[in-house]
Amino acid sequence: MRVTLKVSRFDPAKDRQPYLQEFVVEVGEKQTVLDALLHAWEVDPTLSFRRSCRSAICGSCAVSINGRPALACQTLVGSAVAEGGVITLEPLPHFRRLKDLVVDLEPFFASLQAVLPWVVTREDHDGLMDPEVARKLEGPATCILCGVCDAAIEVAGEVKPAALVKGLRLALDPRDALGAARLQLMKVPPEILRLFVRELTQKCPKGIKIAFGEGES
Amino acid sequence: MLMHEVLVVGGGLAGLMAALKAAEKADVAVLSKVYPTRSHSGAAQGGFNAALGEDDSIEAHIFDTVKGGDYLGDQDAIEVLCSEGPEVIMELERMGVPWTRTPEGKVAQRSLGGAGFPRACFAADFSGHVVLHTLYEQVLRRRVKIYPEWYLIDLLVEGGQVAGVLAYDFPRGRLEVIRTKVVVLATGGCGRAFAKTTNAHANTGDGMAIAYRAGAILSDMEFVQFHPTTLYGTNILISEAARGEGGYLRNAYGERFMAHYAPQKMELAPRDVVSRAIFKEIKEGRGVAGRYVHLDLTHLGEAKIAERLPQVRDLAMRYAGVDPAREPVPIEPAQHYSMGGVRTDVWGMTNLPGLLAAGEVANVSVHGANRLGGNSLLETVVFGRRAGWKAAELARQEPWPSLTSSTLKRALATWDALLDAGGEEGQGRNGDSAFAIRREMTTLMTEQVGVFRTGSELEDAVRKLAQLRDRYQRLKPPGGSRPFNYALMDYLEVGYLLDLCEIIAKGALRRTESRGAHYRLDYPRRDDQNWLCHTFVRRGEKGPEFSNGPVKITRYAPQERGY
Ligand SMILES: Cc1cc2nc3c(=O)[nH]c(=O)nc-3n(C[C@H](O)[C@H](O)[C@H](O)COP(=O)(O)OP(=O)(O)OC[C@H]3O[C@@H](n4cnc5c(N)ncnc54)[C@H](O)[C@@H]3O)c2cc1C
Ligand code: SF4
Ligand code: FES
């Protein structure tokens, strides 16, 4: 099918203002927005956007698609077009743009530091883990650090969404020595965390579910 | 000028493991063209082999690996791989890897192809991903300096010693020199040499080509693994775990055709055997719609698929529109892994002083002519760890190598001129482009240097590759501003790939036998008399110069490989 892409362009070396450039590309309905972008790139090789795995596992290609933060390689052209005829691509909101669709990821990766993003292994850990507990780690451990949650979810407080996900993943880990202190590091009251976790499942491209405060309300 | 005692190039599993170990004793930095967590190691689904099980043994793992590699692997290196496996898995466990567990709480293991036991440690089907992120956490903990989105462009060699690197700071668009005592190359594979590949866009073999250009020996490059089960069309990988959990392969008649090719191991025969079987089925008219075969998981049931293969299900639904719990998945073989690489010893040392290599970029060689599922992830952590230790040791012992300003000026001038040659306009005015060359090159590799090879097709491929290289040399680099200029990097990557394609095709032409993943229709038998040897290649005046290297055989003499 023929698809019109409107891609937000901005090169600080020469542009004063961002502008939308139109590309008309030929792609299959089952192909992804990333495939469409790669076609556009061949038309204009100066177009900049991140990509690598093309299978929703590396987190590189997060952009705003028709106003919604998402992974370009996970969004099928057919479904994106259905939303309004053209596909509009912009950089992730709440991130500083460096060029075209490329945003500054340094603050994003640095934001993880707030939650001491590693397991502080308990001295007496014996290498075993209850399989049920291990299963609970799986959800948050599938986070690909794509940044979509930081772009799409507002949480009050200084710790950013992706860092909260990391913090919650570590808080669930029985190997970790910090225990209850993990929740304090996140500096967000439990009721807000519960709301966050619910919203995350809706907005995260991996649909991450976190078993936090289950059964309570 | 930037200086680090040890510079690790590559932020995948091999690179991060090397950096962690080296950081215990030396000043280390990691240079990576994508943020470390975006490395392709994260796409690995199946698992890490290690003989942890009570019925399993290191001995059995060694034997399976030797046999799986069709006796071309170096048995001393294989012994290291398999012996250190269990210990590395437990080290990763302590670091925080969220492995899937058995009812007793131990690290769970599944069967992958060519293995006598369920030996692959896994975390659902996100095995590479969770370990990559855990190692990244540890690298943060150790405060290892990371240069994200910096490209290795060239190795600075003086008096035969690696003394630093020329790197390209992509976000700023600037060349930078980093002085170092030791470079650890961990740049991964070169899957993007092929049109049909499971590999990420970043896997363009840069490290192999850059090392080769600097004088390092590459070995066994003609051994390229084609994975049997990739989604038809997109070639996104469907992990061997799908067969490990009990999936079947069926042809157009619904028949489990592996019964004709590997009656004992069936779907879990090594990948080279299964890929050839699929192609044969398709070629002989038993393909579905004449083009692919089916991976059937429907009998596993929705619950098992959801628990053990959630990513596989998601990938099949999204990219093929098929729910594997209900319908069979259309699959075809595609390039997956490069057995060959920069020749190293069991400590990652190459023939160039100051250059070490580990992971898919390297050839130690543990995989021989065909890699078993689960052994590559293991290789990245076992040999990444060793390269890290070795690098730290060298950094302690060795003085700073000399790097004169003339070497620096020459390198900077050459590369600056090249990067700027495109000007504002860049390539494209004469109608040719790196895009076009890449497309022709990768199609040629898949069609003529693929699963089945013949002398005449390989000769033709070598000829065409030379023509593509001529065209490439006439090309003007892409223009435009330098920061985040993906076309400029793509242009360089096509140059690396052209070098590697030539080596792969010529190596395949030279090797007049069939062994593991290298299959010659005109020489269908393994020939231990003449070809039980590694292929070594170095850059000569007029292109690659080939020679044969000895295979280390310690315990297992070559036998016929039956499955
Ligand atoms: C889809 C898929 C599934 C797989 N599943 C399994 C499995 O289940 N089990 C198994 O054992 N193996 C598996 N493999 C193979 C295994 O994942 C890889 O061989 C392994 O992860 C390679 O790791 P690495 O660290 O060597 O390289 P990579 O993870 O590829 O990392 C390479 C690094 O080098 C960097 N780099 C590259 N070029 C440059 C440059 N010029 N300058 C700076 N940096 C550079 C990149 O940024 C990246 O950080 C799979 C492979 C694929 C493709
Ligand atoms: S939680 Fe989801 S949206 Fe947020 S960074 Fe991780 S994968 Fe992306
Ligand atoms: S390209 Fe890796 S997540 Fe989209």
Question: Keyphrases for this structure?
Answer:
heterodimer; A: 217 residues; alpha+beta; Ubiquitin-like (UB roll); Fumarate Reductase Iron-sulfur Protein, Chain B, domain 2; 2 domains; two-stranded antiparallel ribbon; 16% strand; B: 563 residues; alpha/beta; Flavocytochrome C3, Chain A, domain 1; Methane Monooxygenase Hydroxylase, Chain G, domain 1; 16 helices; 37% helix; globular; binds flavin-adenine dinucleotide; binds iron/sulfur cluster; binds FE2/S2 (inorganic) cluster
Task: Provide structural commentary.
The complex is a heterodimer of chains A (217) and B (563). Chain A is of the alpha+beta class and 217 residues long. Chain A has eight helices and seven strands, in the order ββαββαβββαααααα. In chain A, the strands form two sheets. In chain A, strands 2-1-5-3-4 form a five-stranded mixed beta sheet. In chain A, strands 6-7 form a two-stranded antiparallel sheet. In chain A, helix 4 packs antiparallel against helix 6. The mean pLDDT of chain A is 94. In chain B, strands 1, 2, 6, 7, 8, 9 and 16 form a seven-stranded mixed beta sheet that branches. Chain B is 37% helix and 18% strand. Among the domains of chain B are: 105 residues, Flavocytochrome C3, Chain A, domain 1 (Alpha-Beta Complex), CATH 3.90.700; 129 residues, Up-down Bundle (Methane Monooxygenase Hydroxylase, Chain G, domain 1), CATH 1.20.58.100. Chain B contains 16 helices and 19 strands. With 563 residues, chain B is an alpha/beta fold. The N and C termini of chain B lie far apart (56 Å). The longest helix of chain B has 25 residues. Classes of the chains: A alpha+beta (217), B alpha/beta (563). At the A-B interface, helix 4 of A face helix 3, helix 4, helix 10 and helix 15 of B. Iron/sulfur cluster (SF4) binds next to helix 5 and helix 6 of chain A.
